Amino acid sequence: MNGYLDHLEGAYLVRRLAPWSGNLRKRLIRNPRVYLRDPGLLHALLGIGSRDQLLRHPAAGASWEGFVIEQLLGSLAASGAHAEAHYLRTSDGHEVDLVLGLGRVTAAIEIKLSASASPQDLARLERVADMLAAEHRYIVCKTARPAASSTRGVIDLATAIATLRKLGGEKAGRG
To answer: Which CATH class is domain 2-171?
Structure first.
């Protein structure tokens, strides 16, 4: 199976996101997450032909998550920033969708398909980000009104790209 994934990854059809492997006092899930890099291909393979079908499909959240991850990592790469990308999931259910290492800075990013984040979503992100000692903590969703400080908040995809590019540029000496 890994041989096939190696070929698909080499053809830029899939992205494997490795699990974060830092030192926590929790058991970590160690399997990589696999995302199709082209959401149109994913939707075609799932037989999704319209936006309405997509939004009703059980894979809608995973599709959005993969799309956001691809946009963030692609934008960072295009800006020349080196980002180490992982995800974190513990056996007791603590999870964050994207852990980015940008030089000496760590960002914990949770991705939601919704238009807003609940206080519970923010509290979960804070708990996991504390475990990781992440200096930056963001929920990326489809909000019309981003609300963030310089290190945390609820932001849309465009704001996330700009924020992370700035972080990546500052750490690379270009900011």
So the answer is: alpha beta
Q: Characterize 64-103 residue by residue with b for buried, 16 or more Cβ atoms within 10 angstroms of its Cβ, and e for exposed.
A: bbbbbbbebbebbeebebebebbbbbbeeebebbbbbbbe
Ordered by start, the domain boundaries in the chain are 2-171
Residues 6+ apart with CB under 8 A from 62: none
Report pLDDT for 87. Answer: 95
3-state SS, residue 135: coil
User: What is the enclosing helix (H) or strand (E) of 15?
Assistant: strand 14-19
Phi, then psi, of 31 in degrees rounded to 5: -80, 140
Please give the helix or strand (H or E) that residue 5 lies within, else none. Answer: helix 2-10
Rounded to two decimals, the pTM is 0.90
Q: Which of 80, 90, 127 is nearest to 108 (CA)?
A: 127
